[in-house]
Design goal:
heterodimer; A: about 180 residues; mainly alpha; 2 strands; about 70% helix; globular; B: about 200 residues; two-stranded parallel ribbon; 7 helices; about 60% helix; about 0% strand; membrane (chain A); transmembrane (chain A); transmembrane helix (chain A); cell inner membrane (chain A)
Chain lengths: ~180, ~200
């Protein structure tokens, strides 16, 4: 039950506009760092510390830009982190409202199954490694598909165009090589 | 508190729309990336165009606060990171936002994607000083710049062109591109009629 692209694209555009009208442009990948920070700070309480001016961290990445990531780690109930949790809620409700996904699709996506078979271990291993390089790359780039590509290009940011060029330069050949069989 | 309510409302709407356009479905993502079904690309182009035209149009009418813009810095690592993200996006079928929506929708592989993502983000946190020292994070072409100069914006323009008018024109260009793009560029050439799921 995928929406017609004209309606879907319009709705998606309205959400991006609402975000920048009311708060700020949408971004997601930073919150993987914040969750890592929250977990690490729970194990090693000295990781994030309060200073006179705000927050800092023994980790150089969390401490950068005046400790803005350290501040979010110390205060998880902030706009951007709650935003990602709400995305999960919205996605869940949307899927349930259209009857949920069938069992086979929940286990392994159909296109993957057609090209690589029924091994769940293989699929989960690739999903895990894919996740690793996606988030490593997103943090190196300073944003992901939502922050750089959608929000960035919408604002005519040079960085958004550079990111999109890199992302598609890799994604298209990898996808063509991996997924030859159509379903 | 207001900001938390906005986070819940806009975040939930974003998650729901990502699901409905098929962006959280790895089958739809790879049919776009292997160029056999471009309808999601058309939706994304239309979304960027719509958002851009509304934002810059609203700025010109004084209805949208220019201060809400948040422009990221350009540096060589943006391209390198984009390449990495692109490769993983194709292999897994998920990017960070769509991965979390897919996990919430019951896709088991998406939870593995998130676990790998948390480890990847942690690996970047640890290796960040080396990237910083390499110079690949140093700004290029002015850093956090927009293509034109947006009136009242704290970000500089790459060119002296009026950034709001340019944004509006580019926005309309993205919309036109969405309509001009064919439904597929590769594959059997059979028009798809059935929903892609």
């Amino acid at each position: 039950m995928t929406l017609n692209w004209k309606i879907g694209g319009l709705l998606l555009g309205l959400v991006f506009f609402a975000a920048v009208l009311l708060v700020k442009p949408i971004g997601v990948s930073t919150q993987f760092v914040i969750l890592d920070g929250i977990v690490a700070d729970a194990v090693m309480p000295d990781l994030v510390t309060k200073t006179d001016e705000g927050y800092t961290s023994t980790n150089a990445y969390l401490a950068k830009s005046g400790g803005k990531y350290a501040k979010s780690v110390a205060n998880p109930l902030n706009y951007s982190f709650v935003f990602v949790l709400a995305m999960m809620l919205g996605g869940f409700l949307s899927v349930m409202a259209r009857g949920g996904l069938d069992r086979a699709e929940r286990a392994i996506p159909a296109l993957w199954r057609a090209n690589f078979g029924d091994s769940a271990v293989k699929r989960y291993a690739v999903a895990f490694m894919g996740g690793f390089i996606v988030l490593y790359g997103a943090r190196l780039a300073g944003g992901c598909t939502s922050g750089h590509m959608m929000s960035g290009m919408m604002q005519t940011a040079l960085s958004g165009y550079i990111f999109a060029a890199g992302a598609f330069a890799a994604a298209i050949p990898v996808s063509i090589l991996m997924f030859r069989k159509e379903v | 508190m207001t900001s938390i309510i906005l986070a819940i409302v806009i975040g939930a709407a974003f998650g729901a729309v990502l699901d409905r356009v098929g962006a959280a479905n790895p089958n739809v993502i790879n049919r776009m990336l292997n160029l056999t079904d471009l309808r999601l690309a058309k939706a994304i182009l239309l979304a960027i165009g719509t958002g851009s035209a509304l934002m810059f149009g609203g700025q010109m009418l004084g209805l949208v606060d220019v201060g809400h813009m948040s422009v990221k810095t350009a540096y060589v690592g943006v391209f390198l990171g984009g390449l990495m993200l692109g490769a993983g996006w194709a292999a897994a079928g998920y990017c960070p936002g769509t991965g979390v929506v897919a996990a919430a929708s019951g896709r088991k592989d998406a939870w593995f994607f998130i676990a790998g993502g948390l480890l990847g983000a942690a690996a970047y946190m640890v290796t960040y000083p080396a990237w910083k020292a390499s110079g690949l994070l140093d700004k290029i072409a002015g850093g956090a710049v927009t293509l034109g100069t947006v009136p009242g914006s704290k970000y500089e323009g790459m060119t002296a062109l009026p950034g709001d008018i340019l944004g509006l024109v580019l926005g309309l260009g993205f919309v036109a591109l969405a309509f001009a793009l064919p439904d597929r560029l590769m594959g059997a050439g059979v028009p798809r009629t059935a929903p892609a799921e």
